[in-house]
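Q: What would this complex look like in 3D?
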Amino acid sequence: MSRALGVVAAGAVALTVVLGLFVTPPDVVQGELVRLIYLHPPIAWVMYVAFAVTALASALYLLPNTRSRMWDLVAGASAEIGVVFCALALATGSIWGRPTWGVWWTWDARLTTTALLLALFLGYLALRRVPADIATRSKRSAVAALVAFADVPLVHMSVKWWRTLHQEPTVLRPDPQIHGSQAWTMLLGFLAMTLLYAWLLVHRFRVEQLEEQLEVEGLDRALADRHAEVPA
Amino acid sequence: MSYVVAGYAVSLVTLAVYSARILRRERALRRPR
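A: Here is my prediction, written as structure tokens for the whole assembly.
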């Protein structure tokens, strides 16, 4: 199942790259640079989705009725993927910003809130590694995830609430500012990156599960050794 | 166009390396100890 998902995701990403680089026309205003629109917004979208999944899973872990180990592991797995996509959103944005705005970086509201988001979720991942018993670690990580997620609406609304260099949304508005093959390729980009996220989440979740199993086994073994040392 | 190529290269290489790392880690954890 995950292999099929991986193949479809890789195919969709490859098709987006071919259409984005070779088939779609250059833009009247942006010229060839418009080709980054098939990559940068879909990457930022997955960043939102990944952090939203982390926040949702964390909330489900904190609620006594839905508490399950699974939610903590999903939260951790999705946060790491979100951090990778957040870093890529900043990198591709910076590469786009240099020829468009004349600078690699500026303390614009969208850029600053996104950089803050990266720092917050890097902190979350660090917190997950602070030694503690599994229940304590999971609970404090879940609270931290919800606090960090509060920055996501700020990132999204920053271009509306403040005067920014970053443009307003292209697609998520009543009158989308993109049409024809450019619009379809961009939508394919969103689908491709979402499928890739789903595939990454499946595998990253398995890694979380296996690592936790190893941690518990190691603890059991250490306790057994300790008991063996104590004279009867 | 060089900025476009750089953007695509950075993204695709990062995602490929990250995916490969996850698969390698999963395989290593599944190996019997």
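A: To summarize the key features: The CA atoms of residues 55 and 145 of chain A lie 6 Å apart. Chain A is about 75% helix and 0% strand.
Q: Very helpful, thank you.
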